[in-house]
């Protein structure tokens, strides 16, 4: 599967964002080296596995090239490709350590997805272990994050919990993304955080489903064979761009917009929707679970 980070043009009236001096410096150096090589943004994009939109957004300091972290070192395949194709002698790579935003609560491997999720027009998710992050209560999110990272300090846990809840604001927009979620029944029966936390989480899901913020289906335990047995994933749709597949596991993530990766998962999601309980039956099942907790 190909690692790929898509970037979308901002609306002309988008709110201005604070841009660090380091990011502006990187942007100006990228543009300087590109022009020195006699290339347009489109021509550079043809030489590297990134879009013209990506080149444009980085050159205008609207997108950081930082993609991941290896130990204490931030990494960027985009930067490596540009350094090579523009024959910079590693100039852009030497700027990378200056770009890390230590105030950002997201792990480096998750930041690209968080940015793309905020731009998506539709989100399709299947989760077999936990409630989707966009639908979690604060207490449930804290329990999930804490159980998966026992080494995390209290302050960092609170920062990451707040960041997860902050992501949910996209559902409060005037034109929120379409959100279709399918989850395994075990997700709403697994007492993560204890029975009180789970009951509050299930009640939250009922509220969201009845308000039509999300179209939610549950694959019942009786469905011993279903299309999601190989794991959890998200699909994002955008206007004028390819759809994106996102798979997360073990503190790492992979994203792809390649048809060979996206289409089988889209087909699997369609099958899961057929195998899941209908929205009303899903709500009734959760009401019964909440009463028993």
Question: How does this model look, in words?
Answer:
By secondary structure, this protein is an alpha/beta fold. The chain has two domains: 21-98, 434 Repressor (Amino-terminal Domain); 111-292, Endonuclease, Chain A (2-Layer Sandwich). The protein is built from eleven helices and eight strands. It has helices at residues 21-36, 41-47, 52-59, 77-86, 91-95, 111-117, 138-148, 154-167, 195-210, 259-275, 279-292; strands spanning 68-70, 73-75, 122-127, 178-184, 215-219, 233-238, 241-249, 252-256. The strands form two sheets. A six-stranded mixed beta sheet has the order 5-4-3-6-7-8, with helices on both faces. Helix 9 (195-210) links the parallel strand 4 and strand 5. It is elongated. The two termini are 41 Å apart.
Topology:
Elements: H1 21-36, H2 41-47, H3 52-59, E1 68-70, E2 73-75, H4 77-86, H5 91-95, H6 111-117, E3 122-127, H7 138-148, H8 154-167, E4 178-184, H9 195-210, E5 215-219, E6 233-238, E7 241-249, E8 252-256, H10 259-275, H11 279-292
Parallel strand pairs: 3-4, 4-5
Antiparallel strand pairs: 1-2, 3-6, 6-7, 7-8
Helix pairs in contact: 2-3, 7-8, 9-11
């Amino acid at each position: 599967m190909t690692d790929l980070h898509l970037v979308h043009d901002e609306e002309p009236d988008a709110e201005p964002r604070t841009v660090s001096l380091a990011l502006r410096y990187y942007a100006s150096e990228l543009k300087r080296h590109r022009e020195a090589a006699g290339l347009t943004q489109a021509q550079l994009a043809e030489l590297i596995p990134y879009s013209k939109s990506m080149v444009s957004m980085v050159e205008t300091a609207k997108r950081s090239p930082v993609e991941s972290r290896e130990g204490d070192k931030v990494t960027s395949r985009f930067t490596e490709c540009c350094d090579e194709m523009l024959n910079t002698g590693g100039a852009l790579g030497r700027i990378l350590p200056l770009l890390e935003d230590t105030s950002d609560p997201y792990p480096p491997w998750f930041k690209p997805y968080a940015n793309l999720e905020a731009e998506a027009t539709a989100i399709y998710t299947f989760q077999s272990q936990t409630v989707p992050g966009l639908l979690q209560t604060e207490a449930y999110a804290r329990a999930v994050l804490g159980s998966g990272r026992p080494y995390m300090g209290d302050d960092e846990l609170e920062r990451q919990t707040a960041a997860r809840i902050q992501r949910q604001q996209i559902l409060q927009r005037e034109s929120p993304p379409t959100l279709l979620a399918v989850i395994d029944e075990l997700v709403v029966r697994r007492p993560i955080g204890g029975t009180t936390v789970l009951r509050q989480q299930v009640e939250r899901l009922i509220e969201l489903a009845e308000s039509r913020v999300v179209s939610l289906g549950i694959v019942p335990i009786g469905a011993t064979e279903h299309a999601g047995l190989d794991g959890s994933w998200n699909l994002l749709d955008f206007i004028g761009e390819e759809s994106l597949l996102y798979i997360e596991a073990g503190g790492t993530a992979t994203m792809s917009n390649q048809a060979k990766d996206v289409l089988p998962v889209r087909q699997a999601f369609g099958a899961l929707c057929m195998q899941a309980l209908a929205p009303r039956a899903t709500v009734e099942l959760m009401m019964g679970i909440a009463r028993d907790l």
